[in-house]
Amino acid sequence: MSYNQELNVALLAVQRATLLTQKVFHNNAKGTLSKDDRSPVTIGDFGAQALIISALRHNFPNDEIVGEEEASSLRDNPSLADQIFTLVKQTKLEDASADNQLGGPIKDLDAMLAAIDAGSSSGGSKGRIWALDPVDGTKGFLRGGQYAVCLALIVDGDVKVGVLGCPNLPVDDAAPISADVGGEGKGVLFAAVQGEGATSRPLTKGALAAAKTIAMKEVDDITHATFCESVEAAHSSHGDQAEIAKRLGITKESVRMDSQAKYGSIARGAGDLYLRLPVRKDYEEKIWDHAAGDLIVREAGGEVTDAEGKRLDFSIGRTLKRNKGVVATPRGVHGQVLEAVKQVLGSKQ
To answer: CA dihedral in degrees (147, 6, 122, 258; nearest 10)?
Structure first.
């Protein structure tokens, strides 16, 4: 089955949403609230979720959506809701036909709140379900670091389409990996369709730019590999990662960056290895934090499993209940890295 329409809509929807998130990114007042789990959410999260869900509902009205945010806090805070709607109204692609493909502007405040709330699917193993993280890496977004707008289509529990918009990563696929966000030539859109490979293209303000095929870099000598890891120690154990690097003979310092920008970076060969190591036994990863990146890395020639070597299972619901941790590497060295991960985590049992 072809997923060309789904891919095109997802690319344009993410590209349009990044126009809003970048406007917020460059504004000191990001309208931050705290959610029940104490994680931050910004006007960028709400606005991007509204724009993307509106586009999905216009094109695929029967599909379910698992979105990270919901609008109850905005209903309790009308001035913040108005501020977000002003941003949403102002955000459109410069190419009229591309913007019309997404359904054009959201008509009013109530429609915006309804769109945000439409991401309430519980997920599962049947049917077509979109997984959306409107601003992945919100803490990075707040501190002026890397973040990503992430969207994936899961069909009967299997990821079929994945798109990552990374406004602060360099367009140049050959640029060395860095957490730096300064300078020109930034903004890249990664994508993959199951069985069709992975691509990157520059983010634009209008129609889609031409895509280039990307591939993971083969690692002949593991000691020369570059690790990517989360900035936040609460998201992944930095101590365990350092011990794994030591066992593999890797002395190069890890590059720490927020969000699924790490998946995109290793998929195009800018980095080599991405580990997300469990920090708590009861923690369950959210499907929107991994679905798009998982497919993009695998379609670029990589392998993605959990810390026990099992494929990530997106068919359970809103979380990866059956998985602990993430290990993403080039195929040729996955077994070697996974063995080191098992040794380090096993020694803590």
So the answer is: -10
